[in-house]
């Protein structure tokens, strides 16, 4: 127990504001990941007020709080219409509001697994496969671990694209669900959804479109190949309202083709002495605030409003891609469709002209813009998807393109010709300590000692070094379980009292 005097409410809020001063700026297009700023303050204000009205509710029971059911109905109907889900018939599209993309992905997998197991008695205790391109969001690895499926990542080309043939060659009866993305977060590529969903349908395999990222932008994006419920083989689809729906964090939509698929997502039990439990999603009690905020934004914007905001995102994306293309030494990875691009070193020019994307990201941070470091990834077939810098492009950036482009040019100038970070010394030390390939995995104390040696732990909340390029290079080359233990320890220590 602390003996510090209690604070009055005004002082508490001042303290919170002080804490917030150390956060990355959430508005104004300064951070190109994590947050989705429509650049329209009235949308934030509306979300704020709606969230406050719904704050006392508990989403656990929509019969006690019918406003929750009404808002969920409206949101599911809106997203269903945006992604062309049929409203009637046995293939009608129904769904749920979840707490975010990860929960939507987890539930899509759980549903498919339960249906796969129920399809025949010899499958009842079997372990099916979860098939997806290697660029599918990590939430699917989490789902495979949580729900006991074998994660089967299909290798992609170095530009992050996956071929339909390589996906199709791995479709078999032990696949409970095949996942495709619209688009994939690391590359911005839209997977070959038509080919994969057609083939899955022909074999009676469920196919999930992960549109958590693009689901509220692609419906209004020009020139996207058909990617949604217009394809008959698409059996479920996730779309996050807290991304390009512009709602505060905590709200996503998961849609299923047919009521039976949706219902197998539910957990219900009467086998305890308490109230009968029916949870459509993973959580029990849940906040209605993000739901109400999303509902209010959708009521306010409607499809036309989203079309307008998407047009600004399209303009910003084109402007930023053009700015990047004009800079010697960097290139856009692959052929992105939608509001994400990844910048890589242009390997077609001599090394002295190349711009390493992680040095670029570090230099951009000095310019006041945060772009996201993505470590390279060597796949099962040996093909390496190179390390890159991810950019999530939001409507607010439309007004900032010239400033962003100028910062990118200056940052590239400073990074050009610098060799990628080389973690050889750190790797050798790790091997000596027994954490090399095939070696041990550090526990909390050892992981923290290693992190301290690597310069982490400067002070509360500032545990991460300001230049991330060396850390990312190490993360890429360490055995995955070791890197995962180190990163888990870092994040755990940040919040440890
Ligand atoms: C394609 C895709 N799927 C799933 C997710 C997970 O979403 P969340 O962070 O809301 O859990 C993300 C997040 O960026 C994503 O881009």
From TrEMBL:
Record SUPFAM superfamilies: PLP-dependent transferases
Q: What is this protein called?
A: Aminotransferase class V-fold PLP-dependent enzyme
Q: Which Gene3D superfamilies match?
A: Aspartate Aminotransferase, domain 1 (3.90.1150.10), Type I PLP-dependent aspartate aminotransferase-like (Major domain) (3.40.640.10)
| KW Transferase (keyword) present | yes
PANTHER family tied to this protein: PTHR42735, SPHINGOSINE-1-PHOSPHATE LYASE 1
Q: Which UniProt keywords apply?
A: Aminotransferase, Lyase, Pyridoxal phosphate, Transferase
The family assignment reads:
Belongs to the group II decarboxylase family. Sphingosine-1-phosphate lyase subfamily.
| Coiled-coil segments on the chain, per record | none
* Keyword flag Transferase: yes
- Phylogenetic classification of the source organism: Bacteria, Bacillati, Actinomycetota, Actinomycetes, Micrococcales
Q: Could you say which cofactors this protein requires? A: pyridoxal 5'-phosphate
One GO MF term attached to the UniProt entry: transaminase activity
Q: Where are the transmembrane segments?
A: none
